[in-house]
Every structure is written in structure tokens, then in C-alpha cells.
Amino acid sequence: MLENQLLKIAQDFGSPVYVYNAEKIESQYKRLTNAFKAVKSLKINYAVKALSNISILKLFNSLGSGIDTVSIQEVQLGLAAGFLPDQIIFTPNGVSLNEIEEAAKLGVKINIDNLSILEQFGTKHPKTPVCIRINPHVMAGGNANISVGHIDSKFGISIHQIPHILRIVENTKMTINGIHMHTGSDILDIEVFLYASEILFETAKQFKNLDFIDFGSGFKVPYKPGDIETNIEELGEKLSKKFNDFCKEYGKDLTLAFEPGKFLVSESGSFLTKVNAIKQTTSTVFAQVDSGFNHLIRPMFYGSHHEIINISNPKGRERFYTVVGYICETDTFGNNRRINEINEGDVLCFKNAGAYCFSMASNYNSRFRPAEVLWYKEKAHLIRKRETFEDIMNNQIEVDFTSKKEKELIK
């Protein structure tokens, strides 16, 4: 999107505001499907947790995508967005058997990553096929918090526990229709991904009734000009060949599945904030904006980098600023950044704000969560209203401490 279009959105809808470019989402989806065009059956399941607005889900539905969900609420969102149950895969971690059964009743695909739950589910529902999430014991990812395939991860069933899985399958007579892995996010080295795929193929040979193999995702996107990213085209070429060769060996054409989130929506998103004040200390010039980690927690949580530009003064001379929020704790968005000269009232744009940004927002400090806008076919569409005080009060129940009964309780 052009800077003047973003500035107009900030003026029309106020700030802070999240803006998503539908055209970028569509191009990323097509880029991924084109990379694996050599595969007969490919299924992209968008990871709902990255950005769960129902209009975004409907956009993916229109593109032919399925969805990957991690909670029963995300399953319900997917159904509300028009996805058929067989277009939804449920991949939770650490949830109760009841929640898995609830999802199974809705008819969605089930993915289980716990031996205990697998045995319980198979015993009660042997006719319901399930996918198994394997932990390949491959360390991958850009941060310890998003590396989920290592040996001490809470995710997946260890490849060393395959005999236990086979015992449960034999005892319960359940059907395993898929094998899944997800090693982490921000994977740059495709050789690590290909190495993990070999482990998954070897595991898949143990199961004779598979319909699909799910390779998760974790593809790295660029966070700044000139940044490196996963070479999705090279990965597509190499993994497609390995997958096709495996299908020949397996004796059946399986579906190759992925569940990308960040890759599909991160670069589509812009987060717009207004500068409340410029504050200079002995060594730092702060640009203080009308937001905080209540709206964008990733820089504080992951140390993630979001490029910050001044769309109100794109041609101004560059100076160094530390961009901070209005939360009553340290909430630094960018330290000592080179940005076109900032004045109070200017609008700053945080890039790569499509994934895990609004979805991780909160009402900390009793602040309202911002609005969301979708730029679709050269028009700005409001897809979530900015919260109000009524939203903050909603579901809160006030106790009447003035009544005689309550006063007696206080005593």
C-alpha cells in the first residue's frame, strides 16, 4: 500500500489502527501454491492464530485455503467463516480430551500430540481417524519461544516413542490418517527443513492408511529492507521431489499439507500510531506514541523487529529516535532507530504487523484494543470496530458494597 493511502486510513479511522492489504495476502498464498505446483495434491491450511478476524478467514476461504486451528473457539470461527469441517484441522496442545471430542463432533480433522490423549481418544472413538503430531527432535526457529521441535519441547510425540503409538493403534484399532510436524518459526535454512522431512517420511512408513502428510510451516519473512527470508521456491522444488518420490514408494498419492500463518499475513499488515510527544533526555530522543505493548507485544516478548517509518514526513531528514509507548512499564518498540524527522502529531507506520500482533493484543492498563481495517480492491473496509468503555465493562459484575448484607460481610 502507498503511504498516502495509509495516512488517509489513519485520518478516517483514527489511531492506533491495524491495516491489512488483501492483495499481499493473495500474492503470498499464490507464491506458496506455485512453489509446490509439482505436487498432485496440495493443501494450504492457514494458521488462524496468526490473525483470526473473520473477514480475513473469509478471504482465505475465497482463495481455496483450509485452516489450521488450535482451540475449539478457532474451529467455531472457521465454521462461522464458511469453511466446511473437512477443510479444518484441529491441532491443539495440552487441551482436555473433552475439547478434542467437541471438535471431533463438529467433523473437523483431529491432530493429537500426546500419547495419553491418543489412547483415551482411540479407546472411546476408534472409528474417528486422527493425525499424529510428531516431534522430530530438530531445533529450528528464530527464537527459543518459537522453536517447538527440539527434544525438550512440550509439542508433539517423540520419534523415539513410535513403538508406543503403534501399540496404541493396534490395541484400539484406530485409524491414523495423517502425520504432522512443526519444528518452529522463522526457519531460514531449508536444509534443516529437508532433514526434518526425511524423519517424517521414515515415520510415515509405519502407518499404512495415511491420506496426508503435514509439514507445518515456520517460513521466515523479511523484517527490514534487504533482510533474508526462506527461499520458498527452492524449498518447493526440493521438497516436492522428495514428497513425490515418497508417494511412489508408499504406493499412494498423498496430500502434501502446510499450515503457514506468518508467511501469509505478516507482510500484509501495517500498524499505525500517532506521536503524542517528543521527549529528549541526556542521551536519547523518545518518540512517544498512542499505543503500547498492550497492542503490539512482539518487540517486548520476542525481541522482534518491526520497521518503523514516518508516513507524515516521508522525505524529512533522518534522525535517531527511540520509539516508545504509553504503558506504565518499559515498552520500547524500536531503540535508536533512524527515522525521517518526527514531529508531534505525525503518524508512524510499523511494518510486518499482520501476524501475531492484534491477535496478542490485550486491555492492559484498561486501554481499548484498536480497530482493524482491510484494504481490499482499492477500498478501506472496517473489519473490527475500536473498543469502547462499554466493551471494557462488558461481562464485569459489580458487587453492591452499600447494602446492609454486604457491610456485614465486610465486617
From TrEMBL:
Sequence ranges assigned to domain Orn/DAP/Arg decarboxylase 2 N-terminal in this UniProt record? 24-266
Q: What class of enzyme is it?
A: lyase
Q: Which domain of life is it from?
A: Bacteria
Alphabetical list of InterPro entries matching this protein: Ala_racemase/Decarboxylase_C (IPR009006), DAP_deCOOHase_LysA (IPR002986), De-COase2_N (IPR022644), Orn/DAP/Arg_de-COase (IPR000183), PLP-binding_barrel (IPR029066)
N6-(pyridoxal phosphate)lysine modification sites are: K49
Q: Is Manganese among this UniProt entry's keywords? A: no
Binding-site list for pyridoxal 5'-phosphate: G218, Y356
The record's family statement is: Belongs to the Orn/Lys/Arg decarboxylase class-II family. LysA subfamily.
List the PANTHER family: DIAMINOPIMELATE DECARBOXYLASE, GROUP IV DECARBOXYLASE
According to UniProt, the name of this protein is: Diaminopimelate decarboxylase
Q: What is the lineage of its organism?
A: Bacteria, Pseudomonadati, Bacteroidota, Flavobacteriia, Flavobacteriales
